[in-house]
Amino acid sequence: MAEQQVAEAPAEQQATAAEWRPTLLAYLCNWCSYAGANLAGASRMPYDASIRVIRVPCSGRVDPLMIYKAFERGADGVLVGGCHLGDCHYSEGNYACQGRMALVKALLAAAGIEEKRFRLEWISASEGSIFQAVVNEMSEQLRELGPFELK
Amino acid sequence: MSNHTDAVRARAKQLLESGEVTRVIGHARGTTPYRSRPHFASSPEQTDALIHDVSCGSNLAVYVSKPKERVAVIAKGCDARSLATIIHEGQAERGNVLILGVSCEGKLDEGRLLRKLDFPPRQVKSVREEGDEVVVEGPAGDVRLPRDDVIMVNCTYCRARTPAVSDELIGEPVPPREEADQYPDLGGLDAMSEAGRAEFWRAQFEKCIRCYACRNACPSCFCPECFVDEYHPQWALHGGGQFRGNWMWNVGRAQHLAGRCSACGSCQRGCPVDIPLMLLNRWMERATNQAFDHLAGMSEQQKQLAALFRKSEAKASEHG
Asked: Using the beta-carbon criterion (under 8 Å), do B284 and A102 form an inter-chain contact?
């Protein structure tokens, strides 16, 4: 189901300004957050269609440049999802991610990008409802903030 | 006073005569009295050109790249921080680098100096330090300027006026500036709103011509292939004048220097369009200092910042 949502996206981008829908790019770790998203879909939990998912093997694989690049390419927000601390499939990947994302947050603040445009969340494979809540909440915040422009 | 020319020459000559090192990396007089250039002395005679005064600002650690034989580097506090960092990152063996530390009270910022003078730069005959003043000999005699007005701004909040890591020290130890931990230079950015900061950097990065002088001047930028030169993926659009590509380059650069920058200011000194790169570097230094208790190159035992992210190291306190 999660994949279907993504596949529908292009048509929805045609929406008029009044119905503007943010682009929320999500890097989800294969073992937890992606499975959590899958559960949300399989359980027919509706969540905002602004999300675009990129599956990564581990949240520790998310290079900070991938986040800056997302903003540079016009994402309105970026979500990084990983396993809860202690649950990483590779033991310490999410710790590495946590440290890096602390630097990303600092640098985004320096560059003047609103704090709410970037979020790091631990979502396990059983937390479909948390995935739903996070996506909906963040999409709502992005709607309030409006489009991000770096042109 | 930080004119250590005589002491530097004498020690360099000794080291080369005894064969302790094969080369001494230092500064020599540049094209004007307020400029210096790097100088590589590999025989005792060549040490005569060495100088070390208020003009010797550039970071010499940039010339240390996996030396096969022992070299000595005339290192100010920031150079020593950079050396400690790159040695830790495997760019040189500790035994192959003799860190000849010199105490430092700040080095000239050419732009700040020349703006204070009411005669053309070519009429500067000499520049020297006296007490807390920099004395410029011009066409109508000496002009005395407070040192803090003409040195690099990053020198006015230096935490390493005496090298934290060195094999020997030339000159008397100088305490760190009190402002070092207060980050007064970031006050302007702190006071801005998010939109204000975005606007500020937009104006700055738009100027960038992507000459990569900042990268060339930086001892910590030693990657054989920089992310910005990669074509697949192409992280930053190529060519100057494209704001988005410039933004990616400058932000990516700051990210990669987080926890590794020695605050020497070489990038900013090298920048032909005056982008205040040190603001970003210092911003990241403050962040890593506060979140991870990490300051690059302030001790030999220090771990790399990225190592502190590991679970087993998460709460470790490093510098000492």
From this structure: no
